[in-house]
Design a protein that fits this description.
With 213 residues, the chain is of the alpha/beta class. Helix content is 31%, strand content 16%. It contains 7 helices and 10 strands. A hairpin with a 4-residue loop joins strand 1 and strand 2. Helix 1 crosses helix 5. The relative contact order is 0.23.
Length: 213
């Protein structure tokens, strides 16, 4: 769990995000580069800061499981049930769910794809920022392309300098395994990236009658 961040830093981060800026926030794994997830220009700034092409989708961090319905659409009854069950068990936490993208999420965030990757992180600072901003934020790791993700604010500042607008110092983040990414848009849930939540835990949560990953 991150150290308590200064309220003034959080306020400055929210102000920067509202203006289309990019900030670094401490999560339950690494520091992330956050931009307003409904702002296409801000998403482009994330890719520019990371010196990375815009060919990969950006994960989206939300404050509450109920926020899923703001950023995902056309959920089947089965998908809704899966989101409810998995959210109850693993959110806040290291599980990212891939669902149909709402028009509220610009194509720049999803690399032009029709799905969006959503997570409620076990990171109070991030959830506080999202609530104050009134919108989800991107959650890609804070690192230059090809470099290790930052686990301290100092590492973020060294990597990005003035190419981002603010850093919220939450101490040293835990690092470790990234979130598990589970695609719920396929006929059978499919793990796209192995991570902190095991296949066995997901299968048990979803049941063993063909619904598990």
């Amino acid at each position: 769990m991150e150290a308590q961040a200064a309220n003034g830093e959080i306020e400055r981060a929210v102000e920067a995000l509202a203006g289309g800026g990019v900030v670094a926030l401490p999560t339950d794994t690494f520091y992330c580069l956050a931009a307003c997830a409904i702002n296409a220009d801000a998403a482009r700034r994330v890719f520019a800061a990371k010196r990375r092409g815009a060919s990969g989708a950006l994960p989206v961090l939300i404050a509450e499981p109920s926020d899923v319905m703001r950023y995902a659409v056309n959920l089947t009854e089965s998908q809704q049930n899966a989101v409810r069950v998995l959210g109850d068990l693993f959110w806040p936490g290291a599980l990212t769910l891939v669902l149909g993208r709402s028009p509220a999420v610009p194509a720049e965030v999803t690399a032009g794809g029709d799905t969006v990757a959503l997570r409620v992180p076990d990171a109070p600072v991030v959830r506080d920022v999202v609530r104050r901003l009134g919108a989800a934020v991107t959650g890609t790791s804070a690192n230059l392309s090809g470099r290790p993700p930052a686990v301290t604010a100092a590492q973020v500042r060294e990597a990005f300098g003035d190419r981002i607008d603010a850093v919220v110092d939450g101490g040293t983040t835990p690092g470790g395994a990234p979130s598990t990414v589970l695609d719920l848009t396929t006929p059978r849930p499919r793990i796209l990236r192995a991570g902190a939540i095991s296949r066995e835990a997901l299968a048990e949560a979803l049941g063993t009658s063909g619904a598990g990953p």
